[in-house]
Design brief:
The complex is a heterodimer of chains A (918) and B (82).
Chain A: H1 4-30, H2 39-46, H3 52-65, H4 71-83, H5 86-97, H6 102-109, H7 114-147, H8 166-182, H9 193-221, H10 224-232, H11 236-241, H12 252-272, H13 274-282, H14 289-305, H15 308-318, H16 329-336, H17 340-381, H18 383-388, H19 393-417, H20 424-435, H21 439-447, H22 453-478, H23 485-488, H24 510-532, H25 537-547, H26 556-560, E1 564-565, H27 568-579, H28 581-597, H29 604-619, H30 621-631, E2 633-634, H31 639-714, H32 720-752, E3 760-763, H33 764-781, E4 785-789, E5 796-799, H34 801-818, E6 825-833, E7 836-843, H35 877-887, E8 891-895, E9 903-909
Parallel strand pairs in A: 4-6
Antiparallel strand pairs in A: 1-2, 3-5, 6-7, 7-9, 8-9
Helix pairs in contact in A: 1-9, 2-9, 2-14, 3-7, 3-15, 3-17, 4-12, 4-14, 6-7, 7-8, 7-17, 7-19, 7-20, 7-22, 8-17, 8-19, 9-15, 9-16, 9-17, 10-15, 12-13, 12-20, 13-17, 15-16, 16-17, 17-19, 17-30, 22-24, 25-31, 27-28, 27-29, 29-30, 31-32, 32-35, 33-34, 34-35
Chain B: H1 2-21, E1 35-36, E2 39-40, H2 41-62
Helix pairs in contact in B: 1-2
The chains are: A mainly alpha (918), B mainly alpha (82).
Chain lengths: 918, 82
Amino acid sequence: MLAGWIIALASFAYLGVLFAIAFYGDKRADAGASIIDSPYVYALSLAVYASSWTYYGSVGRAAVSGIGFLPIYLGPTVVAALWWTVLRKIIRISKNNRITSIADFVASRYGKSALLGGLVTMVAVVGLVPYIALQLKAVSASVAVLAHYPDIATPRGGVGPLWSDPTLYIALLLATFTILFGTRHLDASERHEGMVAAIAFESLVKLVAFLAVGVFVTFGIYNGFGDLFARAEAFPALKALLTLHGSEAGADNAAFGSWASLIVLSMLSIMLLPRQFQIAVVENVDENHVKKAVWLLPLYLLAINVFVLPIAFGGTMLFPGGTVDPDMYVLTLPMQEHYSFLALFVFIGGLSAATGMVIVETIALSTMVCNDLVMPLLLRLQSLQLSKRAKLGGLLLTIRRAAIVLLLMLGYAYFRLAGEAYALVSIGLISFAAVAQFAPAMLGAIYWKNGTRLGALVGMSAGFLLWAYTLLLPSFAESGWLPPSFLEHGPIGVEWLKPRQLFGLQGLDQVSHALFWSMLANAGGYVGVSLTTRQSAVEKAQALLFVDAYAHMGGALGSRVWRGSASTDAVLALLRRFLGSARADEAYARFHRERGSASAPATDADLVHFGEIQLAGAIGAASARAMIASVVDEEPLGLDEVMAILDETSQAVAYSRQLEQKSRELETTTAELKAANARLTELDHMKDDFISTVTHELRTPLTSIRAFSEILLDHPELAAAKRSEYLGIVIKESERLTRLINNVLDLAKIESGSAEWHTAPLDLKQVIEDAVNATRQMLLEQRIELELDLPPRASEVLADPDRLMQVMLNLLSNAAKFCDRTSGRIAVSLEATGGELRVAVRDNGPGVRPQDRDLIFEKFRQGGDTLTGKPQGTGLGLPISREIIRHFGGTLWLENTPGKGALFVFTLPLASAPETMS
Amino acid sequence: MSHCTLVGQRLIASFVLGWLLFNYPLLALFDGTRTWFGIPALYGYLFVAWALFIGLLAFIAEQGAPGKKPALPAASAPASKD
């Protein structure tokens, strides 16, 4: 037996558990240890999307139109893929601007317009009242069904007098519960951690309950999916439900059309329903949670829908003849089989679906009503009295509580007026179509800078009016509140104004029809008017702040577009009145700390921006602007000035990027310069070394020339033999001097590029032989053996014969100089390898020390220990030779042959080779 | 940041795919009264495609997902380097 008191007890126990969770969540949040800081909790709380509509209504819809219940869940699944891009941006914007509701978001974007915020709130309230009515209807129907246990009967019609209607008390109970949940205290950021935790728990309960009944029907009553569908085959009505047209007659295209429009509708709703906005944006702890929600929420929706069709089929087969409302199959099937506790659990699941939706939706709506509808009006009507009141926090809470009660009463009124005529899903779709009216203004808000306030106002009003005309009024007419002729023949008999065939448009189902006309007017009005009107200064600034949300972090831009003077005391006093002293002082201290650490001191504009953002969290952007304006001295900025500031700001951003770029370039240049400088310093040292070397080198021959000349002058009596010997020395030393000077000049010329080159085709082999012949005498004197390994053929290169000769002589004399003293041997070889000629000169001396390998090619540097050993030669031979070879397109290097003497190698391109020298 | 935008682009492409999967004309291929192993074709297709689509979203979103990335640094702060 399920007596009434058991149902009541279970319900209250469940609500008590919820409240405990919420209480615990709030406690933990106050302690700084959030229990909702998890992507899983975030995704579960987003499942507040699945309300009684899903829980009871999907089965009802599936029993009537088969697979047609699914688009409402496929839409969110598909659009979830865009969340990482779109939702994350909305979250970022909302956090930057302390936005607390969708009305606030739209109002703030379009110039903090109180009018627009009010319009959004009105659309939301009017549009969502049917949705709230739906929840009431579901709860009251489920109570009624369960109370008749074990009889299965759906009480229809028979609405008694107001005071004896249990639905009224359910509505009042829900209102009380919501007030306890959502408006216990005023929070500047409008976050309700405890509530979110409770909602996440409710999502779990309703999922488990629904899965339980699904498993029970599919595997308990029937033997799995196959069995169930096989039995359904016998029912022609059910068989038809498995196609897209369902049981509704109509052309294929119409079925697909309404399918697609339901997907679009649900895509928009999951983002724009105030409760989804509240959970997804306002209550979001960390925007990275979105990443998991992208697939977790679709998974949830999949899980809660798998058994919808089996339950619908099972119900239709077990309760033939329409005696039982299909919306209640979920509950009646366990009752039919006398599983009373399962039935009770299912009822609790349904209760959690309904309460979850009602709590979040009414809290979100009450915030909107308070911040965007009532407060702006109060401020306007009696601003003097209001500004005299010391504490306004209490007033805000009262307004919100009243709004919650009012919303549930409106829902109840709709339920009494029109609810009985409709199935759950149809009621829900009316609400979906209403919130879809936010779509153009919302999408434009974050992606289109030129959307204007007037455009949003016109578009949304037009869309809302058409929605009301094509969906809301017909729902009244159908429930007998308006004459039925309104539907059949149009208002006062004007056929083309028939609300379901507006302008004679036929072939669409009523939701698609309404969606088409309202969206046409809405998007058309928004875009059209936006393109023909100009934005005000504030709008311009806000548009930039929203569209470029990632570029303008924090509120740097917000405070820049303000000029005037404000006193800290006045702003702080205002904050205290709305937020309470403690919270206001704490916020101000934080502001002061943050600004104090920045390089520039806080300006009046910063202060005003800070105050406005803080207030916006409590009373909405439009009211916050109005309140702040009443306590500060603002000099209005013209549009031109704002444009100039914005330009400046965007230029500043661009400049800063350029600066970074420049600074990187500068760093590289600096590094290059440093290297060059080091090189120069080294060169300078080398030059000093060179001068001392050269001076030394020059002085040695000069000294001996001078000495011998003096001897010759002082001693005219010297013997002729002696005399000619001395003169020989003088000549030899002069030659050495000349050679040295020539070398220096030579190198200078080559390096400066002004050397004369007489390039002609020549035989390298010939050059080598000439050089060897020229040095043969010297080698003989030093008893050095010479090995020649030359190819028989001529080896032609393009070069200057004298220069090549110079290189060869240099290498040979070097080799001779460093040869083994006792049994010197020099090997010269020439070979052609791959398009170039390779000449090698090897000696059998001590070789070049590893640390000198690069050094010897530098000017005036010589291998070996220059301190002890007497430098031999000018130190210019190798650098000159290398330059010469390079000039002819070859390379000269020292081969690495440790311990085997020095091996100098150079290559020159063959004359026939394509790559020749310049 | 580049990783973030790449994930975003992959998800946007998935959005297009999802729209195609669950709409005319692909859906029309499975319309009718056929059954697969006793499961109606349309019902089976929708749920299988749905599950696969969720798998795809999960794969994209979780691939190299940063556990807790700090908020992006302010982009406009000019670096003062000397």
